[in-house]
Design brief:
Largest sheet: 4 strands, antiparallel
Structural class: alpha+beta
Order of helices and strands: HHEEHEEEEEHEEEEH
Shape: elongated
Number of helices: 5
Length: about 290
């Protein structure tokens, strides 16, 4: 398992917490060490695992037609059917009690825990299956429509599990967060599909960044003050900071509300260059989707 996959698993698999997540601390370490912060695939933890992962689309006739749909009071939580050696799963109710999902999965012999969690735009519809020891399970796959996608991790519209699957797994699926709902899966605010994608922000002052955020329908929820010297890895969370402070990173806590990472000193040029590079190449290497 490579380091990227370890980070993906760590960020998406954790339960919500009430303080800054490990993902935010990881990004903080990267910034303090003067390394460009990567566009993160999966954020259990970026920055509050209260996060976020996105989607409604249609498959062509050549691909299994499975779509996330709005909850239907008369429908069961899942539609499960066999096709091509797989159980093909359609989530009929994105807001059902997880026990309802589990009950239906058990009826076809699958020891699967399915969580549908509020996710930031980059991860809506993301399918992320892991084993009890946090290994990414390549045999459980998302179903992806043809054509372009504006999401960091692709635009999955379904889940398929081999009919002979005998293991235990947890599958996390990202859904659109409701207004005021904290994300349980999120990523850097300039990742593909996020509101600050390709917006210059590194070393902008707080005064300069506010109108840029407003143009994108985002307000400041809180600030994380960090020390870029590398001598101190501590941080503090504040409701306000001087307008002269420099912005070095950020993410969304909930729809339209951002955590903004700031410092009293400017970030090194390599971090500025790293943000520009992410804009040029927003996609990270994908996992097997065959």
């Amino acid at each position: 398992m490579n380091q990227e996959l370890d980070n993906i698993v760590a960020r998406f698999a954790a339960d919500p917490v009430t303080d800054v997540s490990e993902g935010a601390r990881e990004l903080l370490r990267e910034i303090v060490e003067n390394e460009p912060a990567p566009a993160r695939r999966r954020a259990p933890r970026w920055p509050r695992l209260r996060f976020t992962i996105p989607v409604v689309a249609l498959l062509s006739a050549a691909i299994v037609a499975v779509t996330w749909v709005i909850p239907n009071a008369t429908a069961t939580a899942l539609d499960i059917r066999k096709e091509g050696g797989y159980y093909v799963i359609e989530i009929k109710d994105l807001y059902a009690d997880p026990k309802n999902y589990e009950t239906q999965l058990r009826t076809v012999g699958l020891d699967i825990t399915l969580r549908v969690i509020p996710a930031t735009a980059a991860f809506e519809g993301q399918v992320f299956p892991t084993s009890p020891d946090n290994r990414y399970l390549t045999e459980i796959k998302g179903i992806y429509p043809p054509g372009p996608c504006d999401k960091l991790d692709g635009c999955a519209i379904g889940v398929k599990i081999p009919v002979g699957f005998k293991g235990t797994a947890q599958i996390d699926v990202g859904r659109k967060a409701r207004p005021g709902e904290r994300y349980q899966s999120t990523t850097s605010w300039d990742a593909k599909g996020e509101p600050m994608q390709c917006a210059p922000y590194v070393n902008k002052t707080v005064a300069e960044i506010r109108p840029i955020l407003r143009e994108r329908g985002v307000s400041v929820d809180e600030f994380m003050i960090i020390d870029l010297s590398g001598e101190n890895s501590d941080y503090s969370l504040e409701d306000s900071v001087p307008d002269s402070y420099y912005v070095v990173g950020g993410s969304l806590n909930e729809p339209g509300k951002a955590l903004v990472m700031v410092s009293a000193s400017r970030a090194p040029q390599k971090q500025v260059d790293g943000a520009a590079k992410r804009c040029e190449s927003p996609d990270l290497p994908g996992l097997d989707r065959s």
